[in-house]
Amino acid sequence: MRRVLLVVCLAVCLLVNPAHASQLAIIVLNTLSWGGGHPPSDWLIKVVHGKPEIAVCTETDGSCLHLKATKSSYGLEHSIDLNPQETRYLTWRWKVTELPAGGDFRRAATDDQAAQVLVAFADRRVLTYIWDTTAPKGTAQLASSIPFVHIFAVVCESGAGDANRWISESRDVAADYQSAYGRPAPQIKGLRLQINSQHTGSSAESYFGEVAFRSSLQ
């Protein structure tokens, strides 16, 4: 996680609810349109270690992204350019079917997660929302000891209690940034979906459904 560099370039789909013109949804991930089951060119695969295992899957409630890590670390990146005061709510669906054994982001030697959603800002600061093996749900703290690398982690889910089932999440990224860094959030510039298992030498598996930024929660 500490080695993540968010570099991305592409466009996103802007949807406006005609019944509520002020309610915007920027859909960043929707794998239904991924022809051939592979990431389109506007998604970049970034490998830190090992071999990525990426697939598109279909479940009862829609298309999804499937990530598998075997002693590896990689992610998929997408560039965006959003004002967090206008589309402040990040929403996503995820499912974890295998957690990295002994994973705990609070120690460098065990810093593996089955699933992460990272949001990069114009000042190169990052928020990462994680499903951790060990760190308790609700834990929120800096997740990098490297100088000039600012990553703040929020544990949204922990352990295997909710494994093998889809979980819907929503976060106010503007408020989370303010709480983490003590200043108003600048422009959002990128999003990354990540999986890690190289530090623990184990395996991890996760799935992502739709990921979007919204002006309000329905």
Q: What can you tell me about this protein's structure?
A:
This protein has 218 residues and is mainly beta. The chain has a single domain (13-214), classed as Galactose-binding domain-like (Jelly Rolls, Sandwich). Helix content is 4%, strand content 49%. It has 1 helix and 14 strands. The strands form 2 sheets. Strands 1, 2, 4, 5, 7, 12 and 14 form a 7-stranded antiparallel beta sheet that branches. Strands 3-6-13-8-9-11-10 form a 7-stranded mixed beta sheet. A hairpin with a 3-residue loop joins strand 8 (115-121) and strand 9 (125-132). The chain starts with 12 loop residues before the first strand and ends with a strand. Residues 2-21 have low confidence and may be disordered.
> What is the oligomeric state here?
single chain
The CATH architecture assignment turns out to be Sandwich
Structural class: mainly beta
Under CATH at level 1, the class stands as: Mainly Beta
Beta-strand segment tally? 14
CATH superfamily, by name, is: Galactose-binding domain-like
The SSE string, one letter per element, is: EEEEEEEEEEEEHEE
Alpha-carbon Rg, integer:
16 Å
Distance between the termini: 31 Å
**Main sheet record:** 7 strands, antiparallel
Average residue-wise pLDDT: 89
Number of structural units classed as domains: 1
Task: Provide the low-confidence segments as ranges.
Answer: 2-21
CATH topology: Jelly Rolls
Overall geometry comes to globular
* SS element count, helices: 1
Estimate what percentage of residues fall within beta strands. Answer: over 45%
* Relative helix content: under 10%
